[in-house]
Design goal:
By secondary structure, the protein is mostly helical. Helix content is 72%, strand content 7%. It has four helices and two strands; from the N terminus they run αββααα. It is flat and about 55 Å long.
C-alpha cells in the first residue's frame, strides 16, 4: 500500500495510525479502536444489543409509572377524592407531553441514524444541536403556557 492509499484509507475510517515503513518499503499501520458515542447495533450479539438499547427506555417507563402510583396513593390519602381527580387529570397531560417528547426524539433519531450511516459527522453534530435547541425552546414555551394557565386571570 502506498502513502496515497494510506491517506485515503485513514481519512475514510479515522481508525488508522501511521507507524513507519518496514524494510520492503511498505507502510505499517495499526488499527486503533476509536471510542465513540455511536452504538452500532449491526455488530456483536443481537440480543445483547437490543437489551442494552431497550433497558434505559424500560427503566424510564417503570420509574414514571411508579412515580404516578405513589403520587396517586399519597394524594388520595391526604387530600381525598378532589385531589385524586386533579392528579389523575394532570397525569393525562403529563402522558401527552411525554408522548410528544418521545415522538420528537424518534424523529430526530431517524435523521441522526441516516447521517451516521453516511459518515457525515458534521451533520450529526448539527442535527443533535438543532434538536437540543428545539427541545429547550419547546420546554420554555410549555412552561410559560403552564404558568399562564396556573394564574386566575386566564379564566379557568
Amino acid at each position: 500500500m502506498g502513502f496515497r492509499e494510506f491517506q485515503l484509507l485513514s481519512s475514510l475510517c479515522n481508525e488508522f495510525e501511521f507507524s513507519e515503513r518496514n524494510g520492503s518499503g511498505h507502510f505499517i499501520f495499526i488499527v486503533m479502536k476509536q471510542k465513540t458515542m455511536i452504538n452500532d447495533l449491526t455488530r456483536g450479539p443481537l440480543t445483547k444489543q437490543i437489551l442494552l438499547y431497550a433497558a434505559p427506555l424500560a427503566l424510564a417507563n417503570l420509574l414514571q409509572t411508579l412515580y404516578n402510583l405513589v403520587d396517586l396513593a399519597v394524594v388520595g390519602r391526604v387530600v381525598g377524592s378532589e385531589g385524586l381527580s386533579a392528579v389523575s387529570i394532570s397525569g393525562q397531560i403529563t402522558f401527552l407531553l411525554y408522548a410528544l417528547g418521545s415522538g420528537l426524539g424518534s424523529g430526530c433519531q431517524i435523521f441522526i441514524s441516516q447521517q451516521v450511516g453516511s459518515g457525515d459527522t458534521e451533520g450529526v453534530r448539527r442535527t443533535i444541536g438543532t434538536s437540543l435547541s428545539f427541545t429547550v425552546i419547546l420546554a420554555v414555551a410549555v412552561t410559560a403556557w403552564a404558568l399562564y394557565l396556573k394564574t386566575p386571570s386566564c379564566g379557568f
